[in-house]
Design a protein that fits this description.
The structure holds two protein chains of two kinds. Chain A is α+β, with helices and mostly antiparallel strands. Chain A has one domain: 2-Layer Sandwich (TATA-Binding Protein), CATH 3.30.310. Helix content of chain A is 30%, strand content 37%. In chain A, a hairpin with a 7-residue loop joins strand 1 and strand 2. In chain A, 34% of the residues are buried. Chain B has two domains: 153 residues, Type I PLP-dependent aspartate aminotransferase-like (Major domain) (Aspartate Aminotransferase, domain 2, 3-Layer(aba) Sandwich), CATH 3.40.640; 108 residues, Aspartate Aminotransferase, domain 1 (Alpha-Beta Complex), CATH 3.90.1150. In chain B, helix 7 runs parallel beside helix 10. Chain B is an alpha+beta fold. The two termini of chain B are 32 Å apart. Chain B contains ten helices and ten strands. In chain B, the strands form three sheets. Chain B has a four-stranded mixed sheet. The chains are: A alpha+beta, B alpha+beta. At the A-B interface, loops of A face helix 8 of B.
Chain lengths: 89, 293
């Protein structure tokens, strides 16, 4: 079973009133992580394979091919962790 | 318009010393409301503390004028030069600043080091804030009283207790030499050219661009807060990051100014001596791409 630790290097809260969460995937695992996420989440929009706007369990987020993702409206780190487990599994 | 580093420490000390802090208003374009400032300075004012240049909007405060108002009321003037010293000629005597601080990491130097200038007679009158080696002339034990008599060292050593950050100091000195060799007037001129070029290019090419703060380039230096309609500052930053273009997103440690601008956060492009017009062209091209999203 895939674990968050296997794919994720860091999870950071954004600076700003939005209180979004940025997930930074491990460099050598980023492509695999993005591929797994794209299989699980619903693709709403994409731009040149660089930015993917996705939806998963009523959560809207964007994934960047650089290996970073920004999640909106996540209550806390525990919830973020649960979503990542579901997405990366 | 202040960085949190010129808000939070005063709030902390005010809780200990019990003094009152008054904040001057900022206009919608990010410039200081000088009328409001003048109305808040009185003979009771002990210190006026302000940034020379806003780290969010790039607005350059007229420190000389503000300092004159403060001095006429008998207040001292502290200038946060973190955003001005690296980018323009700063003459503390001409500004008549009583104190001025700046950071190494904003001017090609190491992190964790900065400098505080103070007028000599003020530093001499001040008590040390930290105890340790180097900051004393004598520490003499009195056999009769069983106590120790201490003579403080002269400034600046009086305020430099303990083993200093030697590596940081050497690094900062080299950064200063490097910048002075280029010339601070040249640096300011170059940054102003880049900022004007970026503003023009971005305004011509981007349709969803929102530029925050004053549009008067004579009042600002190489910092451009901006947004793209429909996208958060973090999305803009992550998109640019994909192309190796680094900007800052968020509050930039200046949340109150974002309240005035009525923004959740902002994206900030900033220019320095290593940036080029070609990089601005590339930056603008990427912004055009993100607008399509």
């Amino acid at each position: 079973m895939a674990t968050v630790e296997e794919y994720v290097a860091r999870i950071e809260g954004t600076c700003g009133a939005e209180k979004d969460i940025i997930v930074i995937f491990k460099y050598d695992k980023k492509d695999e992580a993005i591929a797994r996420i794209l299989k699980k989440a619903k693709l709403k929009n994409t731009l040149a394979g660089i930015i993917f706007e996705l939806a998963f369990q009523d959560i809207s987020f964007r994934v960047y091919s650089s290996g970073k993702a920004i999640f909106r409206g996540i209550k806390n780190r525990e919830t973020m962790n649960e979503i990542l487990v579901a997405l990366l599994h | 318009m202040e960085h949190h580093s010129n808000i939070v420490p005063w709030e902390l000390i005010s809780k200990i010393n019990g003094f009152t802090i008054k904040y001057a208003k900022v206009n919608e374009d990010g410039t200081l409301d000088c009328t409001d400032f003048e109305s808040k300075v009185s003979s009771k004012t002990k210190l006026v503390s302000l940034s020379h240049v806003s780290n969010v909007s790039g607005v350059i405060n007229d420190v000389k004028r503000i300092g004159k108002v403060a001095h006429e009321k008998g207040a001292l003037v502290f200038v946060d030069g973190a955003q001005s010293v690296p980018h323009m000629p700063v003459d503390v005597r001409d500004l008549d600043a009583d104190f001025l601080a700046f950071s190494g990491h904003k001017m090609l130097g190491p992190t964790g080091i900065g400098a505080l200038y103070g007028k000599k007679h003020l530093l001499e009158a001040m008590a040390p804030f930290q105890g340790g080696g180097e900051m004393i002339k004598d520490v003499i034990f009195n056999q009769k009283t069983g106590r120790v008599g201490i003579d403080w060292n002269d400034p600046p050593w009086k305020f430099e207790a303990g083993t200093p950050n030697i590596c940081g100091s050497v690094g900062l000195m080299e950064a200063i030499k490097y910048l002075e060799n280029i010339g601070m007037s040249e640096i300011l001129k170059y940054e102003k050219m880049l900022t004007e070029y970026a503003t023009k290019t971005m305004q011509n090419c981007c349709t969803k661009l929102l530029l925050y703060g004053t549009s008067d380039h004579s009042l600002k230096c190489g910092i451009m807060p901006f947004g793209i309609t429909g996208l958060s500052s973090h999305d803009v930053a992550l998109f640019l990051d994909n192309y190796g273009i680094m900007i800052r997103s968020g509050f930039h440690c200046a949340q109150p100014l974002h309240q005035i601008f009525k923004l959740q956060s902002s994206a900030r492009a900033s220019f320095y001596i290593y940036n080029t017009r070609e990089e601005i062209d590339r930056f603008t091209e990427v912004l055009k791409e993100i607008e399509q999203f």
